[in-house]
Amino acid sequence: MGRRIPFLVAAGVVALAAIYVGYWFFLVHVMRQDIGYWTANQRAAGYVVSMGEPQIDGFPFAVSARIAAPSIIGPGAAWRWQGPDIDLSIRPWAPFDVLFQAPGRHRVDLAGDKPHWDEIDANNLELELAIDSANVVHKATLRLNGVSLLDSRAGKSAITTASLVAQLPWPPPGDPSKSALDFVLDAAGIDIPDSQTSPLGQRVDSLHAAGQVMGAPPPDLSPRQALIAWQNAGGIVQMREGDLAWGPLALSGNSTITLDRNLQPIAAGTLKASGLNETLDALAGAGMIQEGPARLAQFMFAALAKAPPEGGKPQVQVPLTLQDGILYMGPIKLTQVRPIDWNWLPN
User: Fold this and answer.
1) What is the pTM assigned to this prediction?
2) Checking CA distances to 173, which of 187, 220, 276, 300 falls within 20 to 30 Å?
3) What pLDDT is recorded for position 7?
4) Which residues does 178 contact at the CB level (< 8 Å), separation at least 6?
């Protein structure tokens, strides 16, 4: 009896190992099949998909596929993406969590009325998708490190680190009062393009935003038509948290953002701000706001500023609104905001 127990244990371990190996190869088959189905479905929808034959590896702790030289052309050649080799992987104990890793250079060409291109070089680029049993993505997490960007119009910029987490309810709501996307964005070390010189400095130290996009556009629309449909349906962005550290300025607060019929932003929010005196001096010195309103704002906010209980620079709580291209801080008209040109979006 004493000899039989070790034998049974060993036999059990061998059986479990054999089952696990069989399960791993089953996942390999499923991954190849899913890649094939996805490619066929995209081509049937009018996309041109090109990539090398997936090379499977990763045993025993993952099922990984390396996809060489991928590229996708949108319907009607409205856009094209071309990227580096992609590593796609799942863990056998979490087969519905899919991780894409694609460090290197990505290029996006957009047709539109004013064609342009963007190149993104990333030391690390990861996209993790949580997929349910009905093959619907309900959560997406994007992580970036060491990113340099080159835009054919704006020039070079960079991001030290960034992450974006998006929750996607299913089915997408037709009601604009319900969330179609919950998001949390964090970024640090954002270097803005030299072509867009800022009086607050070329580096945004940190950015945090958390909120909801209310309402979803109808499916199968071009990006510009989707934006128009979202605006027509009364779509809004509710920013429940926002923090910005840029040069002397530190902001935190919440806001509501939507678009008018010309697809220009309308915003209203309440913000806590510190460093306003230095900020207003810098904006006035650069000619971005008139000196009179800047001095009036400084006088008013000096009387309202209070040191936070935890210590630090004095803060002032102010209402901030943007309408008809004019930015107001409280009752004071600060500056005219340059309109957004949406012609770069494929129509």
Assistant:
1) 0.86
2) 187
3) 61
4) 169, 214, 215
